[in-house]
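Sequence in, structure out. Go.
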Amino acid sequence: MGLFGNVFGKKEQQEKSAPKVPWIPLETLEQLMEIEERSNTRTQLIFKHSTTCGISRMVLNMFTGSYALGDEHDIYFLDLHAHRNVSNAVESKFRVRHQSPQLLIIKNGEATFHTSHGAISDIELAQYV
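Output:
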């Protein structure tokens, strides 16, 4: 394969071993009601991301690259710009001041933990899920 094959082959191997986040797109207000209901029996996570913010992109990449949770929860991805109304409703429903990027953990209908910016990649997520 030569030099290029080795370089590209290594990248392909790295991508295959990278953790996969089982994102569920959060796009509707109805989903918030489902999240609230499901949180009574299964932990729900919401990752709020701004597509125009470099810090949000960096945190998203760090989060995705270090994701190591099992499947005992649902994890939603909210694009703040595409779904501003949903973002506003998250703030109101779960009584958490809007920030971006932001991670919320929902249990029993309430935000039991939330953090934002670089602190997202600093937490031991498994202890909150």
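Check: The chain has one domain: 20-127. The chain is about 40% helix and 25% strand.
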